[in-house]
Amino acid sequence: MNSSKAAAARRRRFDELVGVFHQDMYRYSAWLSRDRTIAEDVVQESLLRAWKSLDSLREDAAAKHWLLTIVRRENARYFERRRLETVDIDNLTPSQEALLANQPNEELDEMRAAIYRLDDDYREPLVLQVLMGYSTNEIAEMMELKQGAVLTRLHRARHKLRDEMQEEVADRDRCNE
Amino acid sequence: MMNCEDYKEAIATDPSWEGGEEHLSGCAACLGYRDDMQALDRRIEQALSLRVPDIETPELPELDTGKVVALPARRRISPPAWFAVAATVVIAAFVGVRMVGNDVMYSSLADEIVAHLDHEPKALRVTDEPVSERRLTKVVPASVANMNHEAGLITYARTCVINGKKIPHLVIQGEFGPVTILLMPDEMIDGAVQIDGQSINGVILPVGSGSVAIIGEDKENLGNIQQSVVNSVSWST
User: Fold this and answer.
1) What whole-number distance in Å separates Cα of residue A147 and Cα of residue A72?
2) Cα dist from A69 to A46, A50, A53, B116, whole Å
3) For every one of its 237 residues, what pLDDT tens digit does chain B have, with 9 covering 90 and above?
4) Residue A149, by phi and psi: left (phi above 0), alpha (psi -120 to 50) or beta?
5) Residue contact B61–A52, C-beta within 8 A
6) Of A18, A51, A162, which has the smallest distance from its Cβ to B40's Cβ?
7) A7, B68 contact by CB (below 8 A)
8) Residue A34 region, left (φ>0) first, then alpha (ψ -120 to 50), else beta?
9) Distance CA B183, CA B202 (A)
10) CA dist list (Å): B48 to A11, A103, A113, B71, B114
11) Which of chain A's residues have a Cβ under 8 Å away from the Cβ of B58?
């Protein structure tokens, strides 16, 4: 294959992978950062990094894991460069608000806000399991944790969300009385 | 056989788990718990499934990996190496004292700008099709600059990286072909820097606390364009 054909094939491969996985990349990034604008920046940086190291991806079947790992590292880099701030859910920036106001629906908004309030340690394994379909073993590998730690975090995350949703329902019932 | 505590523990870590059937068949409480957890998971999944905006592929650099051709043979712009010498001379005339020591960024900036044009040839097509207002707003957000349409017909808009900073890269159509405009709100220069090449003609102009690079074909008279571009740009910070 001559070099221009190789370049075109490389670009085609990249475009195909991005076409399939860009939604997962964005959603993962958005829930890691809890900010739409940051998520877009992180995805852009991740795409650039993926492009540069595409040749290191031997099997396209492993592309999702590879791309999400890049997103995870880019997200960490992004926050390394900036002072970590505690997010006050009552005082969000427009970009953070935009994440919660995605496809307005009262019940989903409440769930989204509850997920938003989860600690990073709980939110990330939940996203990887529920949205990305990873097993607890795979999550443990990605997050560099023991499987037991992942199980505990998933368990606690669900219980926190369930408790919050039950409180929301109780609050609504009180308001309607 | 598993007890209620074990079963609930397992279901709370993965509500799609299909084990524990034997326990479940005799325990209504755990059956209810499983159904609750599965319903909760469906809502979690819906909540997590954010609508995804159009993700724009960033500018992808040509890679010289041995497998990939670095640049097409047809180059519209004079070689960066040649330009770098000319640019350095011209810049030195304007900012000579600041070229001493580590502060040699102006020559690299100019060099980088020309190299950037060189590897983004598709920006330089002749067209009368304007970019959408939405795209323009995305590339030149109000938080970076306010830009009106005095500059001319904008036919290309993309966020690019120059000197490590994301900047709006625009192209307008001039009399002799496309004219590149790079808005660099964070690149302060002391004075105008002329860019002369074998087939290009351009300038980097100081604008407020930043600068704007304008590069066109060698025959292009950039005087009017410069004026309208400078008038049309105001930095937001």
Assistant:
1) 19
2) 9, 10, 13, 29
3) 789 999 999 999 999 998 898 999 999 999 999 999 999 999 999 999 998 988 778 888 876 544 333 322 223 333 343 334 344 334 333 333 233 333 334 355 777 787 777 656 567 777 777 888 877 888 888 777 777 666 678 888 888 878 877 888 888 888 888 889 999 988 888 888 888 766 788 889 888 888 999 998 878 888 878 887 887 787 876
4) alpha
5) yes
6) A162
7) yes
8) left
9) 14
10) 30, 11, 10, 42, 44
11) 44-45, 47-48
Task: Decide yes or no: CATH 1.10.40 for domain B80-235.
Answer: no
- CATH number of the A103-177 domain: 1.10.10.10
Name B98's Cβ contacts closer than 8 Å, sequence gap at least 6. B106, B190
Size of interface A-B (CB pairs under 8 A): 108
Give the distance between the most distant pair of CA atoms in chain B. Answer: 89
The single-letter code of the amino acid at B225 is I
Tens of pLDDT along A26-56?
Answer: 999 999 999 888 899 899 999 998 998 888 8
What residue spans define the domains of chain B? 4-48, 80-235
Per-residue b or e along A82-120, where b marks 16 or more CB atoms closer than 10 Å to that residue's CB: eeeeeeeeeebeeebebbbebeeeeebebbbebbbebee
Q: Which class would CATH give A1-88?
A: mainly alpha
Alpha carbon distance A9, A5 (integer Å): 6
Per-domain boundaries in chain A: 1-88, 103-177
User: Which residue intervals of B28-144 are DSSP H helices?
Assistant: 28-48, 80-95, 105-118, 133-139
Reported as a single tens digit per residue, the pLDDT across A69-109 is 999 988 988 877 664 444 555 556 666 666 666 566 777 88
Chain A residue nearest residue B56, CA to CA: A44
Do B60 and A48 count as a contact with CB atoms less than 8 A apart?
A: yes
* ipTM given for this complex: 0.84
3-state DSSP call for residue B154?
Answer: strand
